[in-house]
């Protein structure tokens, strides 16, 4: 079977408002997509990678000029690995395994179409998790992607951690990252609408419409704390009208994340 190829796309934006709209559009259509952001002379350059049989959303193609450059798998990985140096979020460093690291750092091996902790929605979710009592709790991460939130929860003392995603490749990537961090996490392919059981803490870093559709499921799964992320700031009131007033909320880079405390 021939190796699947990915295409590299580049979009240049001139202001912060356009940048936020672009990322919101990309995140909504491809929530697990990896991307790189660089700034040069006042211009923000966004690079992202899609399978060769996928195309950028039409509304994005109409609004911005998209440069297309073909990359095969190894070139894509070499390019990303060369640029990802790590981030520091809520007192936790997220690093690639080839950087010097400590035991309490989170190691993420950049793979096709997965996050590396650089997106604001992931960072805001981590900020909220950092203020919650996780020691000894059970934890569920819905839409786990590269597994960052699940790995964080396990390293911060959660007793049992589960991460689910509808994408088998995401789950494979998350399992690789769990091994890098020497943690045992039950990553599995699953449809969120079919999830059963209860967990002390549940996180869902998804798009707004999916969060709204899953409201009943997420509330049923949550015993104590529910963390919602992946929400553009303009959707703030949609979430509040559906889920109610949050226990706490954090904002950053045009995004918002909520934590709800169940009675």
Concise overview:
The protein is an alpha/beta fold and 263 residues long.
> Total helix count?
9
C-alpha geometry = globular
Number of domains: 2
Rg: 18 Å
| Beta-strand content bin | 25-35%
SSE string, helices as H and strands as E? EHEEHEHEEEHEHEHEEHHEHEE
CATH topology of the largest domain: Rossmann fold
Largest sheet at a glance? 7 strands, mixed
Task: State the fourth-level CATH superfamily of the largest domain.
Answer: Vaccinia Virus protein VP39
Poorly predicted residue ranges: none
Helix content, binned percent = 25-40%
Strand runs, count: 14
The strand line-up of the biggest sheet is 10-9-8-11-12-14-13
| Class derived from helix and strand content | alpha/beta
Q: What is the CATH-assigned architecture of the largest domain?
A: 3-Layer(aba) Sandwich
> Mind telling me the CATH class of the largest domain?
Alpha Beta
Distance between the termini: 53 Å
Oligomeric grouping of the chains: single chain
Q: How confident overall, as mean pLDDT?
A: 86
Compile the SSE list and pairings:
Blueprint: E1 6-13, H1 16-29, E2 35-40, E3 43-51, H2 58-63, E4 66-71, H3 73-83, E5 87-89, E6 92-95, E7 106-107, H4 120-130, E8 138-142, H5 148-155, E9 160-165, H6 168-180, E10 186-189, E11 199-205, H7 208-213, H8 215-221, E12 222-232, H9 236-243, E13 248-252, E14 255-261
Parallel strand pairs: 6-7, 8-9, 8-11, 9-10, 11-12
Antiparallel strand pairs: 1-3, 1-4, 2-3, 5-6, 12-14, 13-14
Helix pairs in contact: 4-5
């Amino acid at each position: 079977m021939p190796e699947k190829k990915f295409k590299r796309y580049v979009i240049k934006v001139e202001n912060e408002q356009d940048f936020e709209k672009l990322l919101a559009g990309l995140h909504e259509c491809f929530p697990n997509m990896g991307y790189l952001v660089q700034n040069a002379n006042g211009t923000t350059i966004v690079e992202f990678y899609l399978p060769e049989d996928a195309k950028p959303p039409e509304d994005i193609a109409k609004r911005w000029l998209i440069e297309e450059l073909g990359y095969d798998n190894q070139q894509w990985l070499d390019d990303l690995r060369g640029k990802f140096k790590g981030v520091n979020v809520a007192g936790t460093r997220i690093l690639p395994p080839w950087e010097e690291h400590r035991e309490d750092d989170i190691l993420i091996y950049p793979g096709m179409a997965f996050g590396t902790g650089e997106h604001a929605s992931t960072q805001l979710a981590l900020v909220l998790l950092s203020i919650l009592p996780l020691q000894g709790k059970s934890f569920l991460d819905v839409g786990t992607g590269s597994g960052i939130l699940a790995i964080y929860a396990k390293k911060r003392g959660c007793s049992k951690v589960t991460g689910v995603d509808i994408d088998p490749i995401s789950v494979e990537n998350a399992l690789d990252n769990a091994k890098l961090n020497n943690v045992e996490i039950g990553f599995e392919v699953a449809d969120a609408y079919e999830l059963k059981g209860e967990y002390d803490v549940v996180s869902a870093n998804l798009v707004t419409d999916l969060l709204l559709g899953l409201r009943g499921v997420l509330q049923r799964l949550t015993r104590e704390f529910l963390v919602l992320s992946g929400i553009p700031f303009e959707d703030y009131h949609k979430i509040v009208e559906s889920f109610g007033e949050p226990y706490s909320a954090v904002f950053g880079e045009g995004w918002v994340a909520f934590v709800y405390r169940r009675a």
